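Reading a protein record of the kind used here takes little practice once its layout is understood. An example of such a record is reproduced below.
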Amino acid sequence: MVPRVSRVLPSVQEKPRYVAAMFGRIATRYDFMNTLMTGGQDARWRRIVADAVGHAEQVLDVGTGTGKLARAIAQRHPTANVVGVDFALPMLHHAAPSQRLACADATRLPFADATFDAVVSAFLVRNLANIRNGIAEQVRVLRPGGRLVILETTPGPGGWLGRLFRLYFRVLVPLLGGLIAGDAAAYTYLPESTAAFEEPEQLAAALRAAGLEDVRVRRLCFGTVALTTSMLQPREMPEE
């Protein structure tokens, strides 16, 4: 499927400012809308991401929002040190006070190289102005042998199921966004950015090009969401 170009979406230059402002506006209703839109499946998806982290001791959640994914990982791995970053400060204000959070841009992470055993994100990557640069930055802070886990929407399935999905996503979701979150524009951006996003196989190819291996794609919710996992190959020790 070829991604559809939408006039609704901001330009590449405008995207960071547009996305930050949008998430700032909907922060108070963000979690409720996610649960409503997905029929509660968002909690299951967070548990799947938490399982995919493995036995990581240092975990970074990029685009953490209100911190729900970071909390799910911390609950699944009580000994792990989980840090969340997001560039929309109003979203962070709705996270639990006990969480380790920082306001930071996903394309300029404030961490040294090879800091984390796992780097995760949920519904972040399609919001980046430059996806390849964003992936490269996540790889930079990942330790050799570490895991990169991406949960993201897909352009959707084909056939009648795809038509039904697009009807729901492009008509009902903006309506709900306007009625409940008071921001139909934000919930118009969601389906439009999803329709314009890459297929999971294209994202997987980008991860391989960034030096990641063992790239695997798992489609969820009738193929409307995909979990992509990968590993940064451990460096070979030089021979003496």
